[in-house]
Amino acid sequence: MMRLGSTPGAPFDNLIDRMTDVLAHRGPDDRGVWCDERVALGSRRLSIIDLSRAGHMPMANEDGSIQITYNGEMYNFRELKEKFRLAERGHVFCSRTDTEVLIHLYEEIGLEMVRHLNGMFALAIWDARKKNLHLIRDLYGIKPLFYHQDSEFFRFGSEIKSILVDPRVPRKPSLQALHDFLTFDYIPGAQTAFEGIYEVPPAHWLTIDATGQITLQRYWDLPFAVDETIDERKAIYRARELMDQAVHRQLIADVPVGVLLSGGMDSSALVALMHRHTSEKIHTFSVGFEDASFNELPYARMVAQQYATEHREIIVTPERVRELLPAYLRYIDEPYADGSAIPTYYVCQLAKGNVVVLLSGEGGDEAFAGYETYSAYHTYRWFRRVPRWVRQGLIAPLVNALPVSNKKLSLEFKLKRFLGGQDLDPASAHLWWRIVLTEAQKFALYQPQVREQLIPQPSERFFKEVFARSRARDDFSRVMHIDSAVFMPDDLMIKNDRMSMAHSLEARVPMTDPDLTEFMSSVPPRYKMMRGRKKHIMREALRDLLPPVILNKKKVGLEMPYSRWLKRELNDLLMTYLAPDRLAATGLFQPDAAQKLVDEHLRGQYDHGRALWGLLNYMMWHELYIAK
Fold this sequence. Notes:
By secondary structure, the protein is α+β, with helices and mostly antiparallel strands. Helix content is 42%, strand content 14%.
C-alpha cells in the first residue's frame, strides 16, 4: 500500500503483515515485508525457480532505490538478461530468479520493459527516486491485481481479500457489477463486485504518484494484422512450431510440472508436446462426471495411455459440490458462476503433493477458433440471407417447440440460442449466444430501490468496445478478439488462477504465449475454420501426435450438469439461498421474479440453469462478504 499526500503519517503498524498473511495460500514458501514512510510492500512466495532464500521478496536493487514484489513467472528472463547485457552493465546478481532480472531491467529501460516480457505476472515496483508506484499486469490477465484508493491510501493486492483486511475499506456491492454479472455469470472489465475496488486490466500498467494521481495505459493488444502470404501449409507448420516452443518455454521450473488433462484437444496437445521435451514420466490429472454428456474421462485416459503418464482422476458429484459451497467463493472473493470452477478446484486438490506447477489448456479456443459461437457466426452469415418471414414465421416456431434438454450443448439449446441472435449485429449476436439473462429479465429481478439507483451501462459495452478498437479487418476476427480480451481474462483466468492457488499450485497456460497468439491473429481467417471445421489449423498441426478420435471429437468443455442437479440433488440449496426472506433481506432482489425462474426451470419450461446457478452464487457471496 502507498500513503498519499506530502505529510508522513503514522507507521503502517501490522496492516501490511495482515494483508500479506491473508494470501499465504498463494505463497507458502516465504514471506516478506518492506516499509518506509511512504510505501509498504508485502510478498508471499511460491518457490518455483531458485528455491533458495536468495529469491526473497520484496527485492531491491543495489542501492535500495527500487523495490519490487511480484507474482508469476517470466519465461524469457534468461534471454532478457543476456539481450540487455545486465551483468556487463554492472548489475550485481545474487540469485537465479526472474525477479532480479526484472528489477535491473527496470533500472535500464524503465516501463518500456513491459514490451519485452513473456510470462504471466502481476508486478509492483516502487521507484523511490521518482516517488512513483507502478503496477503491471500480464497480457491476458493470467495473474490478478486489484486496487482501492481513498483520500489517505492506495491499497493493492493479488486478491481482493488483502484489501478488505483494512476495516476502513467499505464493503458495498456495486450495482453495475451486479447488472453485468447477471448477464455473464462473471464480472467483466476493471470493475469488481465491490464498489470502489478495481482491477488493473490485462496488458496495462498503472502508475500512481505521491499526490494520488493515477495514470493507466494499455501497452499491448492483439494485432490481427493478417498476412496474406501465409497459406494453409505455412500456418499449420508454424503453429505447430510455436505451440511446441511455448510448451518448452513454460516447462522452466526447479519443481515438478504436470498437466491438467481434460480430454479435449488443447490439454491433450500439452501432454503430447511436453512428452517431446522431458524424459521423466508426465503427471496428468483429470476430472469427470457421472453424466456422460459432460464427461471426457475416456478421452483423457486415451491420451494418458498413449503417453504412459502417471494419471489420476476424480469424479465430481453433487455431494462434492455441496461440500465446497459456499467455501470456494472465499478464494475468488466475488460472485462467480462458471461451472468449471469447482471441478478445477477438485482436480487441483488431486494434483497437490505430486506437482507444484500445472500446464492448462486455456487460450487454445481463442487462438485457434474453437468455440461453438464461431460456428454460429458462420451460420449466421448464411442464415441472414434467408427471407425474414421464413426465418421467423416457419423456422422459429418449429425450433421453439423443441422440448428442453439438460444435456451439455444440446441441439435444442444451440438452435434456440442461435435464433435469438439472427437479426443482431455481429458483436451483439456474439453476446446473445453467451448471455445468461436479458436486460428485461434482470430489471424484473431488482427491488424498486435498485431500479431507482441503477442507471446501468449496457453489458454489451464490453463486447462492442473490443469489436470497435480491434485492428482486424473482418468481423470474424473481431469476434475472436472479443473472446481473447473479455471472456478469457475475466472468466477463464479467474478459475484457473484462484482454484490452483487455493492449493498453492501454479497454473501456466502455454496457449496464451504471445508469439503463438500474435502469429495466429495474422493467419487469414479462412484457414481457421476451413469448410466449417473449428480449429482446423490445430487439428492438422497435431495430426501425428494425437489419435483421430481426439482430433475429430466435438468440443465439450469443462462444466458441471448443474441444470439437472438444481432440479434434484442440489434443489435444497437452491430453495434455501433463494428463499423469499433471504432474497428480500439483500435489498437487491424481488423474490417473486426469482421464484418465477425457479418454477419455470423445475417444470422444464425453460432451462434457467445458468441463471439460477448465478443467483445462487451471488447470494452465497453476498452472505459471506456483505451481510456478515
